Amino acid sequence: MKTELKIYTVEQICDGFEYNVLEGKGLHGLSGQLTIQQTIRISTNRT
């Protein structure tokens, strides 16, 4: 797999940013090409 470094401005990343009020998190930027907030699972099982 080949990777390529891409450089973006803050304005480009925020373009098309969507905030979901029901989930309380940002979802997409870069006009929908970037997932900003992925689902995080936190384990509360402490032994």
Structural class: alpha+beta
On the 0-100 scale, what is the average pLDDT? 77
Q: What Rg do the Cα atoms give?
A: 15 Å
Q: Please outline the major beta sheet.
A: 3 strands, antiparallel
Amount of beta strand: 15-25%
- How many E-type strands? 3
Number of helices: 1
Question: What is the H/E order?
Answer: HEEE
Helical proportion? 10-25%
| Low-pLDDT residue spans | none
General shape: flat
Distance, first to last CA: 40 Å
What is the multimeric organization of the chains shown? Answer: single chain
In what order do the strands lie side by side in the largest sheet? 1-2-3
Could you characterize what this model shows?
This protein has 47 residues and is of the alpha+beta class. It is built from 1 helix and 3 strands; from the N terminus they run αβββ. A hairpin with a 4-residue loop joins strand 2 and strand 3. The chain is flat, with a radius of gyration of 15 Å.
